[in-house]
Amino acid sequence: MKSHVKPAGALAGIFFLITSASGSAQTKTAADLFSVLKPGQWVKIEGAAQKDMTVIAKEVKLLTGDFQNDDYEIEAPVRAILDKTKKQFQLLTIPVTMEADAKYESNDGTFTSFEQLRPGMFVEIEGAYLKDGSFLADEVQPETADPKDTDSVVLVGKAEKVDAAKRTITLMGVTFQIGEKTKVKSVIK
């Protein structure tokens, strides 16, 4: 997985999240999150996918740094293989196409091609989220998922919509529901 923080002058190595007046790390509420999160801001959201493909957010981190258009990430189970010839598959509701020179990586070196992807396989992809709602992946890597966490997903990218009234954040076309149990933490790395 790529580092989610990229050097950016004096902010190098810092996650922007909420801290108390004394500067100590603490958990804040969803209301605090909606007071600072704006569309276009980079965010990492972890949650549990529902049958309707919305996601109940477990944790939200607002990120700072010098992010590029190809720094988007998704960790989720493969939902379907769409087109083997075009190297297309689906994660959540997002159609994914592998670049011609994409990297297929695994810790043991056994994952080497598109043909090894299977529905239900938990993967991490990196690349660009495109304006048409699809994803162009330059890297895919199988991840080990706890069987009880088969609905778990992680997305890193720009928040598209932020709706404080509905308590939702839309990221890569996926709607995340923010609840009272959603963690919004301060983290300084």
Query: What general form does the structure show?
Result: globular
Number of helices: 1
CATH architecture of the largest domain: Beta Barrel
Multimer state: single chain
The secondary-structure element order is EHEEEEEEEEEEE
Mean pLDDT: 84
Q: In the residues, how many domains can be counted?
A: 2
Structural class: mainly beta
- Return the CATH class of the largest domain: Mainly Beta
Low-confidence stretches: 1-26
Can you walk me through this structure?
This protein is mainly beta and 189 residues long. It has two domains: 9-46 and 55-66 and 154-171 and 178-185, no CATH class; 72-149, OB fold (Dihydrolipoamide Acetyltransferase, E2P) (Beta Barrel). Helices cover 4% and strands 44% of the residues. The longest helix is centred in the first third of the chain and has 7 residues, at 30-36. The radius of gyration is 17 Å and the shape is globular.
Task: Please outline the helices and strands.
Blueprint: E1 27-28, H1 30-36, E2 42-49, E3 55-62, E4 72-83, E5 88-91, E6 94-104, E7 122-129, E8 135-142, E9 152-163, E10 168-171, E11 174-177, E12 183-185
In short:
By secondary structure, the protein is mainly beta. The chain has one helix at 30-36; strands spanning 27-28, 42-49, 55-62, 72-83, 88-91, 94-104, 122-129, 135-142, 152-163, 168-171, 174-177, 183-185.
Short key terms for the protein model shown above:
mainly beta, 2 domains, disordered N terminus, globular, 12-stranded mixed β-sheet, 1 helix, 4% helix, OB fold (Dihydrolipoamide Acetyltransferase, E2P), 189 residues
